[in-house]
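The passage that follows is intended for readers who have already worked through the single-chain material. We present the inputs for a multi-component assembly, then the predicted structure in tokenized form, and finally a short commentary. You are encouraged to pause after the input and sketch how you expect the pieces to fit together before reading on.
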Amino acid sequence: MEDLPGLYQVCLQTGDGGADATGRFSDPAWLGHRFVGPYVALEPGFSWTLEDEAGPCGYVLGTADSLRFSHRFESDWYPRVAGELDLIRRAVPTAPSDLEFEQRRWFAHRRWEFPQPMEAFPAHLHIDLLPRAQGRGYGVRMVGMLLDAMRAARVSGVHLVMHPENDRARRFYLKLGFRTHTRSREAEVLVRDL
Ligand SMILES: CC(C)(COP(=O)(O)OP(=O)(O)OC[C@H]1O[C@@H](n2cnc3c(N)ncnc32)[C@H](O)[C@@H]1OP(=O)(O)O)[C@@H](O)C(=O)NCCC(=O)NCCS
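Having made your guess, compare it with the prediction:
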């Protein structure tokens, strides 16, 4: 059984464009229920976690078929967490931070943005490592494992969405053969053929 709360903490502590978002969210569930839980639950074959003696310190998560995943998110994942998110929303009397507001708004509509043509890049991924696990070669190895699994599943290409000001992440992905597909003020989409 995965240490889901530990992985949600990793997501929170890297959730502000790669920096720590603790204090910007009333509850780690706003990020974890979107970016971690559904992958661990629905795509265990494309999920790897990194742990040291202090506990979980990173993960790489993904899906080979983003469109199918978005449908399963709706039918199999969202109903599991909707009640909890509603309780958290009601329990926070003050105005949420911009970051939390963004996630609340996303959960209200759950609209996915896919790069076009979707058939060229049907897979997507997320990777987050805590500072103590960064700059040690784990990122390259973990993305490498995920891309190998996607190739074995005969996927044609993969995309990911990152914060456009996360320069370290962009450098990392370019080194791994990704290229920028589209870029706006809120989001940069990178793609890679497999
Ligand atoms: C972005 C992120 C995934 C990159 O992972 P990373 O493992 O830290 O990757 P980096 O490229 O920064 O570090 C690798 C560096 O570690 C160093 N290194 C040390 N030991 C190494 C080893 N055994 N093998 C390879 N590199 C090693 C090298 O200097 C290498 O850099 P180089 O390839 O330019 O020589 C990670 O920093 C992270 O999770 N950041 C916070 C969250 C985030 O921004 N996620 C992405 C959201 S889109």
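Commentary: The radius of gyration is 16 Å. The CA atoms of residues 128 and 175 lie 16 Å apart. How closely did your sketch match?
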